[in-house]
Recover the amino acids of this structure.
């Protein structure tokens, strides 16, 4: 039997009640498939090199993007056949349909819909809110090395996605990583569209997606930025939990 570890982390306490619904959905998914599950608090950051911790002291999101790579590598070193990272703001909407890929690594699919003037624009990228790595994969070590090198060389302000989706999508455009299409991400425009404010962004998301999402990252950082509210997250979780077919491609 293949030994799989699912890892999640967030500062304690969780910033809002809706996060707990997301975490419980991931725990239910791991239990359904017989995967081990591990929750990490701020100990997630302990393995980071001192200079990196100092440089990212004001950017915990960037530090977490690197720290999760250490956690995944540690799991594989402990003997797990596969290590999976899932962000704490990810909701599993279809437990049986979220199946780990056969490839030795995979990243989630980002179909990002946003308003640009009077039109909607769609960007197809990959994200690190869901990642899986098997033993003997060639990507995890390289990704961690490249991320650390970027951080050490970087000067000036850091954007939050510096070593996350921005960097991964650049690499993906060149070498094309395996992608788990069912591990999706919802932009604020799509979430507000689901909540009934305007159907156009949701329609755009459904037209651009290759399959029905089995898990969706809800971009909790958008609550902190003011683009969404905790009440929006609670409402969309309730709607998707009741009817995951809302996101099925057209």
């Amino acid at each position: 039997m293949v030994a799989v570890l699912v890892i999640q982390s967030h500062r304690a306490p969780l910033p809002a009640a809706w996060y707990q619904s997301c975490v419980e959905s991931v725990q239910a998914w791991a239990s359904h498939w017989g995967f081990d599950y591990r929750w990490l608090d701020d100990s997630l950051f302990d393995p980071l090199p001192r200079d990196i911790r100092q440089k990212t002291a004001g950017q915990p999101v960037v530090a977490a993007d690197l720290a999760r790579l250490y956690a995944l590598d540690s799991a594989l070193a402990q003997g797990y056949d596969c290590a999976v990272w899932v962000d704490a703001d990810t909701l599993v909407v279809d437990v049986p349909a979220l199946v780990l890929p056969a490839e030795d690594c995979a990243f989630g699919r980002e179909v990002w819909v946003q308003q640009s003037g009077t039109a909607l624009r769609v960007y197809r990228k990959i994200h690190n809110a869901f990642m899986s790595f098997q033993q003997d994969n060639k990507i995890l070590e390289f990704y961690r090395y490249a991320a650390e090198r970027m951080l050490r060389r970087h000067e000036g302000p850091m954007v939050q996605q510096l070593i996350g989706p921005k960097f991964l999508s650049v690499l993906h455009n060149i070498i094309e990583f395996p992608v788990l299409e069912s591990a999706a991400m919802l932009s604020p425009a799509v979430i507000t569209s689901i909540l009934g404010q305007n159907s156009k962004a949701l329609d755009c998301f459904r037209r651009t997606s290759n399959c029905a999402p089995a898990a969706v990252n809800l971009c909790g950082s958008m609550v902190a930025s003011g683009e969404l509210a905790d009440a929006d997250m609670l409402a969309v979780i309730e709607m998707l939990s009741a009817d995951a077919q809302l996101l099925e491609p057209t």
User: Anything to note?
Assistant: Strands lie at 4-9, 36-40, 82-86, 90-92, 105-116, 119-134, 179-180, 183-185, 215-217. The domain at 4-247 is CATH 3.90.550.10 (Spore Coat Polysaccharide Biosynthesis Protein SpsA; Chain A).
